[in-house]
Give the backbone structure.
Amino acid sequence: MKPSPNRLKLAWEPWISVLIFIFFLIIWEWLARSARITTLFFPAPSRIGASFLHMLITGKLATNLTASLGRLGLGFLLGALPGLLLGLLMGWSPRFRAIMDPFIAALHPIPKLAIFPLIMIIFGIGELSKILAIAISAFFPVLINSMTGVRELNPVYFEVARNYGASRWKTFTRVVIPGSLPTVLSGIRIGVNTAMVITIAVELLSAQKGLGVLIWFAWMTFRIEELYVSLFVTAVLGIVINILLHLITRHLVPWSNRPADEV
């Protein structure tokens, strides 16, 4: 059986992006070596690569990356799990949604960095305040997408569950959760990306270790190569996380990723 043209196209698309990136690096290297751009601000990729290897060998990169991943993982879990549960309940129960919606509408638009000083006043300047800020940033995207996923379910599903005598718990576990899963996973993806942004931001403001600290001190000491390395590692981390979430989505909800000609 021959693979469909759409499947072949999807297989080639990531490699096209890689080739474009390599071509960009080659042009950048040529411009830097020929002095057509200011290497003080745009050092050659080869110099950035050498700095990357030095930071990797000395353990400087691994130490700070581990610190950022620890904050990101713990903060995301503390924010996403309550957001998921509350969002599913708000989507399922109109009465509960009517009670909670004004609070969500009031708190969601507030920039999460704006309340970081308040968090530090209450919980101190240690790790707890940073993790709470990250948790809050992950909480709202997961909550809103979970609620939306439940509200968009076809009412026929609930009618069928009632006709078969399903209890509220079985309706919740067999209808609400599976039916809203594609939207929930989209919310988790947004929540992870938002949490990652806030992780770097709080590290820039108040931390001893982390990718944000690397970025801040590279700027303070004008180590431009280290600044680019830190930004590159942050970007790669975001790509890896999104690929993992995409693979999880394909495994849990394969029907949402089928090409149009296979539906």
Observations:
- The chain has ten helices and no strands.
- Residues 60-262 form a domain with the MetI-like fold fold (CATH 1.10.3720.10).
- The chain has a mean pLDDT of 85.
